[in-house]
Amino acid sequence: MQFVLDASVTLAWFIDRTMPPYARRVRELLIAGDLALVPTTWPFEVANGFVTAERRGMLSHSDVLLMLQELDIVLRSIEIRLERVSIRSLIAKTLDSRLTAYDAAYLDLASDEHLPIATLDHQLGEAARKANIPLLS
Q1: How far apart are CA 92 and CA 108, in angstroms?
Q2: What is the pLDDT of residues 74-112, one digit of tens each?
Q3: CB–CB of 124/108 below 8 Å?
Q4: What's the pLDDT tens digit per position in 52-65?
Q5: CB 21: neighbour CB atoms within 10 A?
């Protein structure tokens, strides 16, 4: 199975004190061999999440290094899609859905590839429902 993976799920694997069951299920799908597609912004969002958590004292530097090793396990099942991005289209989607441009990129990718989105972001989930894009269950 293929799906679009939002950074909110990826970061929940490492930063949330208790991993949400939904995030755990998505991680298990990837370990079992399913494929997640992500937009080119995903690595920046994940890296920023780790760095921000470390700066806020939620993670130590050694925690971040350990988590990067754990992330390597699922990276084999994540494909970064180099997509042509229309700034006009992104702005229209962000204004219509009240999403960030980063989140609109996930919506765009899911729409273009006709795939469900795995997200813990309620606003992105709602925008996906309005656009008739299924959420990974």
Answers
A1: 11
A2: 899 999 998 777 788 878 888 888 899 999 999 989 999
A3: no
A4: 999 999 989 898 88
A5: 8
Rounded to whole angstroms, the Cα distance separating 108 from 85 reads 9
CATH class for domain 2-130?
Answer: alpha beta
Rounded Cα–Cα distance for residues 42 and 30 (Å): 16
pLDDT for the residue numbered 52: 94
Q: Are 85 and 105 in contact (CB under 8 A)?
A: yes
The closest alpha carbon to 27, from 67, 74, 63, belongs to 74
Q: Give the ranges where the chain is alpha helix by DSSP (H).
A: 7-14, 21-31, 42-55, 61-75, 87-97, 101-113, 122-130
pLDDT band at residue 9 using 50, 70 and 90 as cut-offs: very high
Tracing tokens 């755990």 back to the chain, one arrives at: 24
Q: Within 13 Å and on the Cβ side, how many CA atoms surround 67?
A: 21
Q: How many residues does the chain have?
A: 137
Tokens of 73: 């396990």
Place 19 in a pLDDT band, splitting at 50, 70 and 90.
very high
